[in-house]
């Protein structure tokens, strides 16, 4: 495992930037931690069909998930200026306000993919060792 710190810039789309970082390296990874600020957040709340958009400024309190060639599965909690907290599945359109500082654990000996799981009906994580493992 290799740990890689990343800093995302103002205006970056949080999810797209993390997916791009994984695609560039061509490896599987997990987001270990993330903090920063957003001008807006787009989260899918538990069991909801659509996403909820929150207007900022917002502070990222937690960020975690998996990154693969098939995309990202990320969860995040954010707080607004009154300290109200909301969390859920990270969609596209989470715009970085000043910074997002993310620690990514790269797993060069593993391949992560997403495949439809008959039990859940959703694309779920499938973990396989690479040929060198």
How does this structure look, described?
The two termini are 13 Å apart. The chain has a single domain (2-129), classed as 60s Ribosomal Protein L30, Chain: A (2-Layer Sandwich). It has one helix spanning 14-25, and strands at residues 2-8, 28-44, 52-68, 71-79, 85-90, 95-107, 110-116, 123-129. Strand 2 (28-44) and strand 3 form a beta hairpin. The strands form two sheets. Strands 1, 2, 3, 4, 5 and 6 form a six-stranded antiparallel sheet that branches. The radius of gyration is 15 Å and the shape is globular. With 133 residues, it is mainly β. Residues 1-128 form the PPC domain. One of its GO terms (molecular function) is DNA binding.
Annotation keywords:
mainly beta, single chain, 6-stranded antiparallel beta sheet, 62% strand, two-stranded antiparallel sheet, 60s Ribosomal Protein L30, Chain: A, 1 helix, 133 residues
| Count of domain modules | 1
Structural class by secondary-structure content: mainly beta
Order of helices and strands: EHEEEEEEE
Q: Give me the number of helical elements.
A: 1
Q: If you average the pLDDT, what whole number results? A: 93
Shape: globular
So, CATH architecture? 2-Layer Sandwich
Number of strands: 8
InterPro entries: PPC_dom (IPR005175)
Protein name: DNA-binding protein
GO molecular function: DNA binding
Keywords: DNA-binding
SSE layout:
Blueprint lengths: L1 E7 L5 H12 L2 E17 L7 E17 L2 E9 L5 E6 L4 E13 L2 E7 L6 E7 L4
Antiparallel strand pairs: 1-6, 2-3, 2-5, 2-6, 3-4, 4-5, 7-8
